[in-house]
Each structure stands twice: as C-alpha cells, then as structure tokens.
Amino acid sequence: MQRKGLLIILSSPSGAGKSTLARRLMLWDPSIRFSVSATTRPARPGEEDGREYFFRSHDDFAAMVDRGEMLEHAEVFGHFYGSPRAPVETAMAEGRDTLFDIDWQGGQQVKQAMGQDVVSIFILPPSIDELERRLRRRGQDSDSVIAARMAKSEAEISHWAEYDYVLINDGLDQAETELKTILMAERMRRDRRPGLSGFVRALNEEFARR
C-alpha cells in the first residue's frame, strides 16, 4: 500500500557507530538514500555535482535560503552547507525514505520545516571509555584530534532528549535490529499511509453489497 516517505535523522557523537548503522540500513533497504547536501565550497577532484554535493555559488545558495528551498543550513569553516528541500519532497511523494546524517542543530531545523514527517534517532555509546576506545581503534586521528572529538561528544550527548528515539549501541547487530524495528513501525503509522482511507471505503462498500 502506498505510503509517504520518511525523513530519518541519525545523530551521534563521533565513534558511536552512526555511519556503520546507516550503511547497514541502506543495505537492508536500497531504496533509502542519503540526502545530498548543497555547498558553496569548490568541488574536489573526482566529485560530481548532484552526487557528492550540489555545488552552488554563495549568491545562489543565499537565494535558495531566501526562497525557503533549504530544510537546514549552516556555515562550516567559511563555506555554507545545507539540505535542499525539493529532492526530499519528491522522495516523500514517491514513498521513499531519506536519511540525514546531521547534528542536533540541523535536526531541529529539519523538524521545524517538515514536522511529523521526521523520525529522529540519537545513537549513544555504552560508555565514555568505550567511545574513546572506538575512536582510537580507527587509527586515523592524533591524540589532540581525539581529545577534541571527545570534548565535542559531551556537548552532542547533552541533546539526547530532543530526539524521538535513543539507541545504545552496545553491539552493532542488536542496534541494527532496533533501528529497523523503529523504521518498520514508523512506516506503518496510519497517517503515513494515505491509501488506507480508500481501502476502508472499499471494505464498507463490500459490506453494503452483502
């Protein structure tokens, strides 16, 4: 039965497993796609407009914001980034879900713009010691970078109560199961299935013919 697509916000401190869970979710349902952001930064070698980002000039980006064409936007290191509204609304109308990998501030903007179509999920680590261990296991960052990520994590975790759901990632398989359960339940909500009214009407017409 036809349904409206969802806007799925995944947030977490770095190292809590958000990226891995997002990849698993898209392997489970390939129709789920990441929201492609727009940015004013120049394209890097190998990047294509509309694939990694929608590359826009500062003037074009500002005009999109003024016209209400961005669900959320922010400035990062002198460049603007944002989530265009049109591709997300197209996916919703076609019953496809869009995944957002954004922080709590971006999540608040998307919720304000799209309301009940948003499902927000925050992923917590089982402990702060485990969070640091996971960051160090990556082997990608210096001690100073890890310290900065840990400091940022404390601020991010303080916003956990602003989300619809909170998962504790004490094991990827269990967290993946819980994430899928949330998504399946949200997809089945009555207000996300516009075809139900017609289906029930047909049932009543069958009753009338008996």
What's the short version?
The protein has 210 residues and is α/β, with parallel strands linked by helices. The protein is built from 8 helices and 9 strands. It has a single domain, classed as P-loop containing nucleotide triphosphate hydrolases (Rossmann fold), CATH 3.40.50.300.
Span from first to last CA? 25 Å
Tally of helical segments: 8
Q: What spatial order of strands do you see in the largest sheet?
A: 2-7-1-8-9
**The CATH topology, please?**
Rossmann fold
Radius of gyration: 20 Å
What is the subunit arrangement here?
A: single chain
What amount of the residues lies in strands?
15-25%
Return residue spans where pLDDT drops below 50 for at least 5 consecutive residues.
none
Count all strands and give the number.
9
The major sheet is characterized as:
5 strands, parallel
**Which structural class is indicated by helix and strand composition?**
alpha/beta
Spell out the helices and strands N to C: EHEEEHEEHEHEHHEHH
Number of domains as seen in the coordinates: 1
